[in-house]
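Lab notebook, design round three. We kept the backbone fixed and only want residue identities now. Task for the bench partner: fill in a sequence for the structure below.
Input structure tokens:
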């Protein structure tokens, strides 16, 4: 099937898709053109990268920038049914721990808007099921459960359906706003830790696409660049889903930040050459003792950094710290479909029938982490005390 053409080599225009519309079955460019017209897709002339918004609420519609189609296509899908929002998280159309939490909050607000009727006990039962469904989408990112808990607390204090609808939406806006502010603060703290002319290695995508703001680890890289501290970033491609190759490169190119893309297995070689001053990564869940769950491959980078005496930083908002989990062993690790490993870009490269292991995250022990950077400051070992202290500053 021939792919639709881009307009030049720059950033492709934004497509807006209504989620209720059927997926197109295309058999050529004519069919694609017909689909565009028939489904009322809106082409926007330019896409301002600085304003990358993975998730937005627009008058009763949840708009999600479909990250599975980046960088080839910039498609914003519009959801009017909360179940579609849950599915978008599961399918990783939206991903990155903070963005997952924000999306779930808006999905819950959408469900509240969809509920017909004014009977509060029925509403509570319905929203309870919605909470459960979102909780089942991705098990590792604790921001998801943190956001659901915040929505639950708001619901507990509401007396009418009308009040609950309004306040659940307000809470989702608040979660987004707080994450935006947290990113700015932690990026400032993190940039200060880097030496002048730093060459910084990073993994996965922890940028604006993954949060409500400028990003966590990538936010630090962004601010370090603005402050003249960054020489370049090394972006690990991040198999199997290639978030580094597809998403981080996309963000950095638009920001004009110097970087080089590397395959994951080049990291050790670069470190051995003395070409890396720091490694900065994000987190999906940080246990009380500092053990950190993050994208698969983080642990390998931490071991390499330790061997080469390179500082290894974890950057995350305090919403990624799980005070209910004492150590990394207790963090649930998501395992995903085998096709993520056997296929690249929809093409099967492994022989049919290949047995596969596909954990989406690994756990980096606290002893390999130089510091954990949050919006309330930088935690140093021993993390059991420093993380609790930082969390106590959260509202
Ligand atoms: O599977 P993903 O793409 O959701 O994994 C994302 C990561 O591992 C990120 O490093 C983490 O969520 C932090 S994003 C600011």
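Proposed sequence:
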């Amino acid at each position: 099937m021939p792919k639709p053409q881009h307009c030049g080599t720059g950033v492709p225009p934004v497509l807006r898709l209504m989620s209720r519309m059927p997926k197109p079955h295309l058999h050529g460019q004519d069919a694609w053109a017909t689909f565009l017209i028939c489904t009322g897709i809106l082409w926007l002339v330019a896409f301002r990268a600085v304003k990358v918004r993975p998730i937005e609420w627009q008058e009763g519609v949840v708009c999600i920038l479909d990250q599975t189609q980046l960088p080839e296509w910039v498609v914003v899908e519009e959801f009017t049914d909360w179940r579609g929002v849950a599915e978008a998280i599961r399918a990783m159309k939206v991903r990155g721990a903070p963005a997952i939490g924000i999306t779930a909050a808006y999905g819950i607000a959408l469900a509240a808007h969809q509920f017909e009727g004014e009977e509060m006990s029925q509403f509570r039962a319905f929203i309870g099921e919605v909470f459960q469904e979102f909780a089942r989408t991705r098990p590792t990112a604790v921001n998801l459960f943190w956001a659901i808990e915040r929505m639950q607390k708001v619901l507990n204090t509401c007396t009418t359906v009308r009040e609950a609808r309004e306040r659940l939406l307000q809470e989702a806006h608040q979660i987004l706003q707080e994450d935006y502010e947290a990113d700015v603060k932690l990026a400032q703290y993190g940039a200060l830790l880097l030496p002048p002319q730093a060459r910084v290695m990073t993994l996965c995508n922890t940028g604006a696409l993954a949060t409500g703001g400028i990003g966590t680890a990538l936010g630090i890289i962004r601010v370090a660049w603005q402050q003249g501290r960054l020489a370049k970033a090394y972006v690990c491609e991040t198999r199997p889903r290639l978030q580094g190759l597809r998403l981080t490169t996309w963000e950095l190119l638009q920001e004009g930040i110097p970087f080089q893309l590397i395959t994951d297995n080049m990291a050790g070689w670069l470190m051995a050459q003395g070409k890396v001053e720091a490694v900065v990564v994000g987190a999906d869940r940080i246990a009380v003792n500092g053990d950190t769950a993050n994208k698969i491959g983080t642990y390998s980078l931490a071991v390499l950094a330790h061997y080469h005496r390179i500082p290894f930083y974890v950057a995350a908002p305090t919403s990624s710290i799980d005070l209910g989990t004492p150590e990394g062993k207790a963090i649930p690790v998501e395992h995903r479909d085998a096709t993520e490993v056997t296929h690249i870009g929809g093409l099967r490269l492994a022989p049919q029938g290949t047995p596969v292991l596909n954990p989406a995250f690994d756990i980096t022990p606290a002893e390999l982490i130089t510091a954990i950077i949050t919006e309330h400051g930088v935690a140093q070992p021993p993390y059991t005390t420093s993380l609790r202290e930082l969390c106590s500053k959260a509202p």
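Keep this in mind before ordering anything: Residues 95-98, 141, 204, 206, 210-211, 216, 243, 282-284, 294-295, 360 surround MRU (CB under 6 Å).
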